[in-house]
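Thought: the user wants the 3D structure for the chain below. I'll pass the sequence to the structure tool as-is, report back what it returns, then summarize two notable features.
Action: structure_tool
Action Input:
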Amino acid sequence: MLLGELLVACGLVTRSHVQLALASQEKFGGRIGENLIALGLITKEALESALQAQYEMVQAILTNEDLLSKALRVLGDAHPLTNRRRCTLAAALIAVGRYAEALKLAKTAYTGHTATLGRDHVWTHDSIKVFVQARAAAANAGQAEDEAASANPRTKSSPRQRPAVATRVGTGEQHTAVVATNDLDAARPLEVAN
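Observation:
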């Protein structure tokens, strides 16, 4: 997340203040934070606090990416802890405005937790919450609208066309047919009569 976006999100400045600082930066140089201070729009302490928060967000993403990578390598793709790492990384990505990535990870975590732990497990509930947050944030930001609209596991309103393999009974002959499925459905082998 850019510093100006973070300051706006924290309510320390407005978008118009950021635009003023950017215009000042273009004219006089320096960094955006220095220009906000020079314009009297923010204090040095508030800027330092925001920079610290920005640094911590980046560190959280790097740490969670590393943990997910290790879980994938050691435990495998479908392990509940791997999906827990996906969920945690998705939450960190939401915090910095990377909603499309967060949505994909949260969806995978939700699907995996449901399959391995069931709908009533606390990790499944957590992944559902992060999935809903990512979906709402993506929709509000206009990011990944197609992904956000089609990723809801409870909505069948926007089916996707996927190929399904059909085997003609008794011949072993395979044909590909296009069928509408939602994102959580996998193409299943179909038996087609002669």
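Final Answer: Structure generated. The first helix runs from residue 3 to 9. The helical segments are 3-9, 15-28, 32-38, 44-74, 80-95, 99-117, 122-141, 145-150.
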